[in-house]
Fold:
Amino acid sequence: MTHVLELEKLESGYGETQVLFGVNLKARKGQITALLGSNGAGKSTTLWTIMGVVKPWGGKILFNGEDVTELPPHKKVNIGMTLVPEGRRLWPQLTVEEHLVMAASIPRSREKADEILEMVYQLFPRLKERRNQLAGTLSGGEQQMLAIARGLMLNPVLFMLDEPSLGLAPKLVQEIAETISKLRDEWKLTVLLVEQNIHMSMQIADYAYIIENGRIVLEGTVDELKENPMVKKAYLGL
Amino acid sequence: MTEITKYLTKPSSYIMWILIVIFGIIGVQYYAGYISASTAAIFMDLMKFIGIALSLAVIMSYTGYVSFGHVVFFGIGGFFTAYELSKYSQQILQGANPYTIFLTGMLIGVGLSVLLAATVGAAVLRLRGAFFAIATIGLDYVILYLEMTYRGGAGGGEIYFNVTRPKFLEETYFVFFIAFVITLIVAYIVKVSKFGYGLAAIREDEDAAEVIGVDTVRYKIYAFMIAAGLAAIWGSVYSWRQFNFTPENFSLGISVDMIVMNVIGGLGTFIGPIIGAFIYYIIYRLTNTYLPQLAYIILGIIVVAVVSFLPEGVAGLIRSKFPNLRKYVE
Structure:
């Protein structure tokens, strides 16, 4: 099995505070890998460190077998690593289409921009209807769609999502989950999904890691984890 | 090239073209003698106000980084223009073309400003927050005191020259006009290009900009270089018109003027600094004419009022109240 992303003993933090203590993680090609844990466990920090926005303190980040630990964020984006940050992080004063056009202006997707835009609009017809609307005026669900769409415009290989279900109604969570499955099955992307919503993640993921206090405490296929007594008790509430 | 044509024919460029036509017509009228010198001077002042406001807008309003000491580039442009013109004043009196000398001075000023912006930017724009604003204030003072050591026959840091020629004022209107057109077009293209989207992304959320592939440090430095170059052009044409250069041209008051115009007009837009410059200039003229003692108090109150009640400025107000106009108001 080939791994698109490998983290080896990744350490990082903010200022003097260490958050990640040797995180080992692999994202398998063409699968959805979930990174699960509660608030403050280090999930988002892991993603920001993978992207290089938070500088790694130690350890290695391998992308398709290449060491990209020291690469600055914009170069990582350009080799196909994409993060859809938590809380959408859209630009309220820009329109839907401006978000998408801007994302597609990186060298990696410039040539194929029109083609990808067409695919993105097929995936999210709602965004096509609202292409000239300011992002700040979209509903929560639409904003999440736009955040995902913006990420897709970067023509990713590895698609990392940070809590896409956050703050959404259950019906919308279901829609997002279906979208993410489509990204794996139809778009053939490798997905790294970070979530607090364990139920939703278990439903679509192939493999999962559980992180606590900056350390991976458990990993396995989703079926294995579902049967694990600790997971049952602590996370699934069974 | 096709890209640029595309940008310059967008609906949001119409206001810019209208301004260019109006100011152009006024210049022709002035040259033909239909408009008095004092009326023309008002339009020249307006062009300068709009010009310096737009120069700062590229870094402050588009990118979200306040260059507090932005006047430093205005000063550098002015200094080298005045320096060149005074150095060759003998030749000019003997019939040398002052415009080539003026252009040389301007190019030196603009070049050095851009270079300085690149250097300072590379050092400070890696950091976020207030560091940049503070660094630019420091920069302004450093350059100001350096400049004041210059003894060019007049007092410390002062330069006077004479380029009197027939129709000087009428020609100067066109010098301003050319600078005005350049500034408008550059600032507009920066705003609507993909580079401008990148700057907007940085302004609105820098982390998010980074993860969609914007090379934020490089973008910020480029924006600062463009802003510096435009400010230097205005310092240069201002010196040309004044026949002199004094350390006053490094006064932080001019920086504050630029900032205020951007705030009143509305941050993050191309049209904002233009509207802001108009409003600011009108208030400035009225108060200085009728209530000179209270001029700055009144301006101060207006700024506080705008910040409190119209945080997005006049352009923001237009955009939110009249969504139909949005495509014209970029």
Q: What stands out?
A: Strands of chain A lie at 3-14, 17-28, 32-36, 58-63, 66-67, 81-84, 158-162, 190-195, 207-212, 215-221. The longest strand of chain A covers residues 3-14. Chain A touches chain B through 27 residues (CB under 8 Å).
